[in-house]
Design a protein that fits this description.
- The chain is an alpha/beta fold.
- Helices cover 42% and strands 14% of the residues.
- The chain contains ten helices and seven strands.
- Strand 6 and strand 7 form a beta hairpin.
- The relative contact order is 0.14.
- The model has no long low-confidence stretch (mean pLDDT 95).
């Protein structure tokens, strides 16, 4: 294993807190998964909720665009404690890349409240005890995320924070091109807003990763993606990362 691979492998285990613990299995029965999820992530020290399979995918996407010379920055929309964007930055640093930005986009106040008439499934989940009481709507403050970057030696001028709702921040974000866009906004509107305001900036050969595309019990994320792909005649195949996460590579 090369020094770069060793560093990134150790970083993944640190960010996910899986040096000596197993990660929660999202495909297990919910009665077992939810307590494991809360203990490991919400009340635990993990910096990302992404399972290792999704960090492996993120590493593949970033290293692919670097190897192929695909121009553009990297972004995640919906960052929680910042772990995935920290990993993006670490990959760039490990490869000596200094001319790409990592954009960290989040409200840093939690998830937006869905419209109960238009998005009843999401509204029910949002108001329910799991999301509101156990998860606190996934709210993590900007200073907490900055502190995590600093703790890992990953905060520099190439990391840019976009604080606010995506509908307000993404249209005017000073991003010229993207090579990797990772969408983890959970809900329909957040996914739609990110696609509408970012996809036209994604370079050919770049990757769009949708964290919650496979979720159907509490979000309309898949509907937002399918509608966008149909409207814009996107036929690039959706590739499965795991049961919940999918991605595609832009071909035109």
């Amino acid at each position: 294993m090369s020094p770069t691979d060793l560093y990134l492998d150790l970083l993944k285990k640190s960010l996910t807190n899986t040096f000596f613990r197993r990660e929660p299995n999202a495909d297990e029965d919910q009665e077992r998964f939810i307590p494991d999820f809360v203990k490991h992530y919400i009340k635990g020290t993990a910096i990302t909720m992404l399972p290792l399979s999704r960090l492996d995918n993120l590493q593949f996407c970033v290293q692919s665009v670097l190897a192929d010379g695909v121009s553009g920055d990297l972004i995640e929309t919906g960052v929680w404690r910042g772990g995935a964007t920290m990993f993006m930055q670490a990959i760039l640093k490990a490869h000596g890349v200094t001319d790409r930005m990592v954009w960290v986009a989040d409200s840093f106040e939690g998830l937006p409240e869905p419209d109960p008439l238009e998005r009843p499934l999401e509204a029910k989940a949002h108001a329910g005890p799991i999301m509101s009481q156990l998860f606190n709507h996934l709210a993590v403050g900007l200073e907490d995320v900055r502190r995590n970057f600093e703790a890992y030696g990953l905060l520099d001028d190439n990391v840019r924070f976009l604080k606010g709702w995506f509908k307000d921040t993404l249209p005017m974000a000073p991003i010229e091109k993207l090579a990797v866009m990772r969408l983890d906004g959970d809900y329909y509107e957040s996914t739609r807003d990110a696609l509408q305001n970012l996809y036209h900036r994604l370079s050919v050969g770049g990757y769009a990763v949708i964290d919650d595309y496979g979720e159907e019990t509490w979000t309309y994320c898949r509907k937002a993606v399918d509608e966008f792909r149909e409207t814009h005649a996107i036929t690039d195949p959706l590739i499965r990362v795991d049961s919940k996460c999918y991605y595609w590579r832009r071909s035109k």
